[in-house]
Specification:
7 strands; 227 residues; alpha/beta; seven-stranded mixed sheet; 17% strand
C-alpha cells in the first residue's frame, strides 16, 4: 500500500462528527468528562463541542502562531494532499467521503470553524503546547484524545518522542487516553505500538475498532485505561 509523502506534520482538521466516530464518543462520555484534545491542530472538534456545552480544551504548538499564518498553511497543506491523493486513491476507503472533492470540502469546513473559534476564544480554549511536554497539572483532564499524530507520524517522530509524549499524557489524565489511529501514513501497523504497550505495561491497554475508516486499516484506536 502506498501513502502520503509528508516531510512534516500537516495542518489537516477533522470535524466533531469525525471525532465522535473515530474516538467512539457518545453524548454520555462527552457530557461527563473534562476532555483534552492533544495535538489538536486545526480540527473543529473543540469549537463544535464547546458550542454544544461540552468541556473541551485543545492543545497544539501552532497556537502561538497568528490565525492568518495558520490559515495560509491549512490551504497549502490541503492542496498538497489533494494533489497526492489523485494517484493513491486506492489506499483509501471512500465511504465517509464519497470522493476527493467532498473530502476537501469537509477539511476546509473544519479549519474554517477552527479559525473563527480560535480568533474569538484564543487561549481560553486553545493552549500552546510543545509536546512531548506540557504545563498541564497532574490528572487535569478525565479523558485525553489524540488523532493523526502519534503512531501515524512515526517516520518523523521517533520512538523516544512517543514514549515521552505518552508518559506526559498519562501524567495529565485521570481516567483514559484514546489514540487514533495505530497505523503509519502507509496504512501499516505502527512499528512502535508493541514497544509502547510493553513500556507502559502497568496500565491497561486495549485496541478497539471504531466506526470510521478513511486510510485503509485506520479503523482502530488505542485505549489506555489510567484508573
Amino acid at each position: 500500500m502506498t501513502g502520503l509523502d509528508l516531510k512534516d506534520v500537516v495542518l489537516i482538521g477533522r470535524t466533531f462528527d469525525e471525532y465522535c466516530r473515530l474516538f467512539d464518543l457518545t453524548p454520555d462520555i462527552l457530557s461527563n468528562n473534562k476532555i483534552l484534545d492533544a495535538a489538536s491542530g486545526v480540527s473543529s472538534f473543540c469549537a463544535e463541542a464547546c458550542a454544544i456545552g461540552y468541556n473541551v480544551t485543545a492543545s497544539d504548538r501552532i497556537y502561538s502562531l497568528k490565525p492568518t499564518f495558520i490559515l495560509d498553511k491549512c490551504k497549502a497543506d490541503l492542496m498538497n494532499i489533494k494533489g497526492q491523493l489523485e494517484n493513491i486513491k486506492e489506499s483509501y476507503v471512500w465511504n465517509y467521503f464519497k470522493d476527493i472533492d467532498s473530502l476537501i470540502e469537509n477539511r476546509a469546513k473544519a479549519y474554517n470553524l477552527f479559525i473563527s473559534d480560535f480568533i474569538k476564544y484564543g487561549n481560553d480554549r486553545y493552549k500552546c503546547v510543545e509536546y512531548p511536554e506540557s504545563n498541564f497539572s497532574d490528572n487535569q483532564f478525565d479523558l485525553t484524545i489524540s488523532s493523526g499524530f502519534l503512531f501515524m507520524y512515526e517516520g518523523i517522530l521517533d520512538l523516544e518522542f512517543h514514549k515521552r509524549a505518552i508518559s506526559e499524557l498519562i501524567r495529565i489524565t485521570s481516567k483514559e487516553i484514546r489514540i487514533w489511529p495505530i497505523i503509519d501514513l502507509k496504512g501499516q501497523k505502527s512499528q512502535y505500538l508493541d514497544t509502547i504497550i510493553n513500556t507502559f505495561s502497568t496500565y491497561d491497554f486495549n485496541i478497539k475498532q471504531v466506526d470510521y475508516e478513511f486510510l485503509k486499516n485506520s479503523n482502530e484506536m488505542l485505549v489506555i485505561n489510567i484508573t
